[in-house]
Write a structure and sequence with these properties.
Distance between the termini: 28 Å
CATH architecture: 6 Propeller
Structural class: mainly beta
Number of domains: 1
Shape: globular
Strand order of the largest sheet: 3-2-1-24
Number of helices: 0
CATH superfamily: TolB, C-terminal domain
CATH class: Mainly Beta
């Protein structure tokens, strides 16, 4: 899965799908966090330090951005900052922590914690307090994503052998597998009826979409390239994602049916992990 300037060569977002897109990039030699308008214009760098800053995601009110960073040592931790990059605050202090995901009401953040290669999905209050292990498994559980109504968490797990997409109640109960074959990077549509995800079942990493119960799985990109990290637009009419289809990884957008693919960034480095503002 690809974990993994200026754009402006797209036709622009659909009606109701403006706003901003935040992502991480090593275009300037170090992995930092950038923000741009949804059409790829007015790109700005939000972080500027010697650490690795990555995996940014907007808070539901768009006022803050959560991200993973190793700026206070060799391990990733979860941080939050204002949407303009000011006032960064460290929320976690132990183990390795990454892949933050805000609850729809903004009061909690789910994330993946690596404790000596045992990786579980955790949740904490948005100020970093009351940290709880939701999966408590010997498998690798990561890439959490809240459902829009706040009642479910989708996540990736290899508990059945290979990586697949699972869902569970927000207290960790009711774990259900939705996919067969390699799959990950789940992303709920704004109305909660669909989940986009990444799978290599067709021979390369593609963006897929399925109904929230796991039915009707459809390959949207069908490309020989490596496509990953899908995120929905606020109105649900588009999906932003990263792809190396033109060489290095850049940020692309397409309609929710997989048509109309447009490139938003042009970097010789790797632009990854896009997140669309909620409005």
């Amino acid at each position: 899965m690809i974990y993994w300037g200026c754009g402006g060569d797209s036709t622009g977002p659909a009606a109701g799908d403006s706003g901003e897109i935040v992502f991480d990039s090593d275009r300037d030699g170090n992995r930092e966090i950038y923000i741009m308008w949804a059409d790829g214009s007015d790109m700005r760098r939000l972080t500027d330090d010697s650490a690795t800053d990555r995996m940014p995601v907007f808070s539901p009110d768009n006022a803050q951005i959560a991200f993973a960073s190793d700026r206070e040592g060799a391990r990733d931790n979860i941080w939050v900052m204002n949407r303009d990059g000011t006032e960064p605050v460290q929320l976690t202090t132990s183990w390795k922590n990454r892949e933050p995901a805000w609850s729809p009401d903004g009061t909690q953040i789910a994330f993946a914690r690596d404790r000596n290669d045992v990786i579980d999905v955790y949740v904490m209050d948005a100020d970093g307090s009351d940290v709880r292990n939701l999966t408590n498994s010997t498998s690798r559980d990561d890439q959490p994503e809240w459902s829009p109504d706040g009642s479910w968490l989708a996540f990736r797990s290899d508990r059945d052998g290979g990586f697949g997409v699972f869902v569970m109640n927000v207290d960790g109960s009711g774990v259900t597998k939705l996919t067969n074959g390699f799959a990950g990077n789940p992303a709920w549509s704004p109305d909660g009826t669909k989940i986009a995800f990444v799978s290599d079942r067709s021979g390369s990493l593609d963006i897929w979409v399925m109904d929230a119960d796991g039915s009707n799985q459809v390959n949207l990109t069908e490309s020989p390239s490596q496509d990953g990290e899908p995120a929905w637009s606020p109105a649900g009419s588009q999906i932003v994602f990263s792809s190396d289809r033109d060489g290095s990884a850049n940020i692309y957008v397409m309609r929710a049916d997989g048509q109309g693919v447009e490139r938003l960034t042009s970097s010789s480095g790797n632009d990854l992990w896009p997140s669309w503002s909620r409005r």
